[in-house]
Amino acid sequence: RVVASLPCYSEKNVDTQRGKGVFAKSIQGLLQLNQLGYGVEGSGLTLDLIYNPLGPFLPPEQSALEVKYRQQLADDFGIQFSNLFTLSNMPIKRFADFLHRRGELAQYMDLLVRNFNASTLTGLMCVDLVSIGHDGIVYDCDFNQQLAIPTPFQDAPLAGGDPGNLKLKGGKTVFDVDGFAELVGRDVAVDNHCFGCTAGNGSSCQGATV
Questions:
Q1: How far is the CA of 129 from the CAs of 141, 152, 170, 175, in angstroms?
Q2: How far is C-alpha 200 from the chain's CA centre?
Q3: Which of 62, 67, 188, 192 has the most CB atoms around its CB within 10 Å?
């Protein structure tokens, strides 16, 4: 299985977001994957594409956008793929910095909060998946890992043994647990960025959650 990011089927939009020439290289890569059988019906090899908005707004409805992607990529390049997943832009790191420079961070956060959808909660990645850091520390999701917010363990010592690192307080590594059953029923570490996964149709590693 291959999962590839393609934020739009338009060369102009992709190159605006990712840099000049990125779209052409992406199309070339997808064609090579098709030649190997990925995304081709009946091959047993999956090629999934990832869409995320080009700015501070929510993704459109996933199934309708998949139809458009499939039509445009097939008509323009003869590209086949298995599924399209839509992801929201998380208000962290580079995207948060981008919004802050434009004075749009508060506006985007307000958009996410106003569009909170309780129906998305059961499908969130943090419900039944974990992310493991290079040092073995357990996180509830990739975004918490980027922000150094580990899975909370009330009985855990400070991860890494550093009492001055408050972000890692309560963290454990995979070497501290006997199995993932120990994670069942524990709280999930949350912060403002979590509204990015619960807004609109939801956002997870498998795309929309509702």
A1: 7, 14, 19, 17
A2: 15
A3: 62
Q: In angstroms, rounded to a whole number, what is the distance separating the alpha carbons of residues 134 and 168?
A: 14
Alpha helices in 49-174 (DSSP H): 62-77, 93-101, 105-114, 125-128, 142-146
Residues in the chain: 210
User: How far from chain centre, in Å, is Cα 124?
Assistant: 11
Residue 98's closest CA among 145, 53, 60?
53
Residue in the block written with tokens 């030649």? 35
Residue type, 29: G
pTM: 0.84
List, for residues 158-207, the tens digit of each pLDDT value: 444 443 443 445 578 888 888 888 888 888 999 999 999 999 999 998 89
* SS (HEC) of 34-57: HHCCCCCCCCCCCEEEEECCCCCC
Number of helical H runs and strand E runs in the chain: 8, 5
**Is residue 182 within 8 Å of residue 97, measured between CB atoms?**
no
Residue 194's SS3 state is helix
Phi and psi of 168, rounded to 5°? Answer: -95, 5
Strands 47-51 and 138-139: unpaired
Please report which residue ranges of 86-161 form alpha helices under DSSP H.
93-101, 105-114, 125-128, 142-146
CA distance 203 to 89: 9
